[in-house]
From TrEMBL:
Protein name, entry field: LRRCT domain-containing protein
Stated family: Belongs to the SLITRK family.
Pfam family, one: LRRNT
Source organism of this protein record: Aldrovandia affinis
Subcellular location: Cell membrane; Membrane
Membrane topology designation: Single-pass membrane protein; Single-pass type I membrane protein
Signal peptide from the UniProt entry: 1-38
Occurrences of domain LRRNT (ranges): 38-71
Length: 300
């Protein structure tokens, strides 16, 4: 089926991208995906694999996949949103590839019927945040690719059901810190990709570094985690930064506790918040939270 002509076709180039007729045509094409039974028209089916790669799809109505479909390939389309029920009833799916689209927001219940899913590829979309329930019930998931998106956080709870996960990529996002507690459920993780993020190697990353060391100790692998901040550690791989460098964080916490009791001079406890003196410990980097009693009006 060759309904999806290339934009460069002579005589059709002008206004091709925005032509209502074309969009209508695409809608009809994608609408055919919703037909019950058989292979969706815009796709190629082979055994239990349904391949809808690179079909220029802008939208996706509820899919009726051939019974027993285990692989659904949707990469290299133009999908920017998916209906909450897009994969309802696709309980036999084991592999779902949505890479190289423009997805910027996924409904929290999108994958909830996919209890057999073992591989999920969301690489190279425009995701900036994920609903903490998004991966709920994906007990069979082994492989999760979230690389090349705009994620700035991994919410607590997101990975809670993924104790079977062995491979996870968060590479090339906008992450600057991760919470250890969010990763603790990943008891079987073997490979973690974290490169290409603007890591801030300060006290906020200390607990996660400890978790990473436990992962390495178990024989797991983590790729390079290069610090962007503080300046002193820029370009350094956090795996090579000795844990002792983070002892300062404990000291800082102690000082904060002490400061609350009014026993530590504010100038010392609040030092991390101001301009960085050249002789200060490198891990501080001016990123220390100025949580002290100094601002409360009870200081000396
Ligand atoms: C269908 O899949 C089989 C095995 O996976 C492969 O050998 C064959 O080439 C595929 N056929 C088409 C038309 O893609
Ligand atoms: C899922 O299956 C149920 C029962 O067969 C049906 O009523 C429902 O319409 C289906 N939902 C979708 C989105 O296909
Ligand atoms: C990401 O997706 C866009 C749009 O499909 C594509 O043009 C680009 O080549 C992809 N980039 C990578 C690194 O795969
Ligand atoms: C897994 O797929 C089988 C059919 O292939 C289905 O009977 C079963 O309900 C699915 N399991 C889950 C948890 O969806």
């Amino acid at each position: 089926m060759q309904l999806l002509a290339t934009p460069s076709k002579r005589g059709q180039g002008r206004g091709f991208q925005s032509s209502p007729a074309l969009l209508g045509l695409l809608y009809v094409v994608s609408g055919l995906l919703g037909r019950a039974a058989g292979c969706p028209s815009a796709c190629v089916c082979n055994g239990t694999e349904v391949d809808c790669s690179g079909r220029g799809l802008f939208s996706l109505p509820p899919l009726s996949l051939p019974a027993g479909t285990s692989t659904l390939l949707l990469p290299n389309n133009r999908l920017s949103a998916l209906p909450a029920m897009a994969f309802a009833n696709a309980t036999s799916l084991e592999r779902l590839d949505l890479s190289n689209n423009f997805l910027d927001n996924l409904p929290g219940a999108l994958f909830h019927d996919l209890g057999n899913l073992s591989q999920l590829v969301l690489r190279n979309n425009s995701l900036t945040a994920l609903d903490r329930d998004l991966f709920q019930g994906l007990l069979q998931l082994r492989w999760l690719d979230l690389s090349l998106n705009g994620l700035s956080a991994v919410p607590l709870g997101l990975l809670d059901d993924l104790s079977g996960l062995t491979w996870l990529s968060l590479a090339a996002n906008r992450l600057h810190a991760l919470e250890r507690a969010a990763f603790e459920p990943l008891a079987n993780l073997q490979h973690l990709q974290l490169g290409g993020n603007p890591w801030e190697c300060d006290c906020n990353l200390r607990d996660f570094k400890h978790w990473m060391e436990w992962l390495l100790y178990r024989g797991g692998r983590v790729d390079a985690v290069e610090c962007t901040l503080p300046k002193d550690l820029r370009g350094r791989d956090i795996r090579g930064v000795p844990v002792e460098m983070f002892n300062y964080c404990l000291q800082l916490e102690d000082e904060n506790v002490a400061a609350k009791g009014g026993q530590t001079p504010c100038s010392r406890a609040g030092a991390g918040a101001g301009a960085q003196p050249s002789g200060s410990p490198p891990v501080v980097g001016g990123r220390a939270p100025p949580r002290t009693a100094c601002g409360s009006g009870t200081g000396p």
